[in-house]
Amino acid sequence: MKKSWLIVGLCSLTVMTACQEDLAKNETYKDSGNTINVNDDRRELYKEHNNGNKSEHFGYVRHQKSPVLGEQMSDNHYTDIDREKVADTISKYCTDLPNVQDAATLVTDEEVLIIYDSDTKDRDLTADQVKKTGMSVVPRWYRVYVSDNFNLRKTMESYSYLDSTSKNAETGIDKLIKEMKKSPQGQPVQDEENANGDVMDIRNRSTNVEKE
Question: CATH assignment of 83-197?
Fold first, then answer.
């Protein structure tokens, strides 16, 4: 009888040990709502670990539509964007480009404005590179405007203290964009879009081509 209890006890211990090992293996696999994150340890984007070493892990995230019929989830996808971090990332990437010594970036709720200082001999090429750098960081529906008129930087800085609800913010941003567009904006993004990512009226574009 004692031997039987001993065998049962050993089996239970083996099962418990195996379960603990399985939990340890899956410790970094978390499922929260409609988002599944692998190796999600809540570290900040683009930041080094506490020991100073960069992560060697691949990044993998899976999103699913809401299982509730008619529930809109997409409106919440971009509510948590840290615009200052995005602006910081874009500016850093831009200074990695050839001939770009300085770059300032302003990120609003729907636009990215990049003003840079450059000694390039090909303004159009550099403008295209800077613009595409900005577009590579933000969601595709953002409009990206660039300018190599670095004197506009102070105007941009004056808007950095505002937000989407600030009075006259939109009017001021629109005026700044108008000044920025006097500089080269690079190549059209696609056939149906202009250099900043705005969808063009194909009929008007065709008319303009015929007039030219």
Answer: 3.30.70
